[in-house]
Design goal:
This is Small ribosomal subunit protein bS21. Pfam families: Ribosomal_S21 (PF01165). Belongs to the bacterial ribosomal protein bS21 family. The chain is mostly helical. It has one domain (about 15-85). Helices cover about 65% and strands about 0% of the residues. It has four helices and no strands. It has helices spanning about 15-30, 35-40, 45-65, 70-85. It is elongated and about 70 Å long.
Length: about 90
């Protein structure tokens, strides 16, 4: 196996194991592995999956559209002007 697919932390000399475990859990949590493990523990119906994705979508889109490039801003203004003109 390659080193990139291996996940873990190195225990430093004199470091308590509890602290190393906390670092590992933090690392796994930021990568989304723990959430995926919890999700895969039980069967999720297609309807439940759709609802889960709908609940998380606003958060994803909020981050995606936080910053707009000048081209995106110009396009949004054009669309707003066209909408205002249309009866």
């Amino acid at each position: 196996m390659s080193d990139k697919s291996m996940r873990g932390v190195n225990v430093k000399k004199g470091e308590p194991v509890d602290r190393a475990l906390k670092r590992l859990k933090t690392k796994l949590d930021t990568e989304g592995i723990l959430e995926e493990m919890r999700r895969r523990r039980a069967f999720e119906s297609p309807t439940q999956r759709k609802l889960r994705k709908q609940r998380t979508a606003p958060k994803r889109h909020k981050v995606r559209w936080r910053y707009m490039s000048p081209a995106q801003e110009a396009k949004a203004e054009e669309q707003a002007a066209a909408a205002a003109k249309a009866p």
